[in-house]
Specification:
single chain, 2 helices, 20% helix
């Protein structure tokens, strides 16, 4: 098992995830937008070149307090 934090440019790897992993079918344009935004984070578990698990996070920016994840 390999673990990786996905970045912009990892869209093909994201598209190679198990179909049952997400709530619905992946949309390439939305995946690309998610990965290109530095406030979005997607850590994945990879087995046999396929994403088999993930954890996602979003960094929130507030005008009156420190950043929050």
């Amino acid at each position: 098992m390999e673990y990786k934090l996905l970045n912009s440019g990892d869209e093909k790897l994201l598209e190679a995830s198990e179909r049952s992993l997400f709530d619905g079918d992946l949309r390439p344009k939305l995946g690309s937008q998610f990965l290109s935004d530095p406030r979005h984070h997607l850590a994945v578990a990879i087995e046999d070149s396929t994403i088999v698990g993930f954890a996602s996070a979003v960094r929130y920016i507030h005008p009156d307090k420190p950043d929050e994840l």
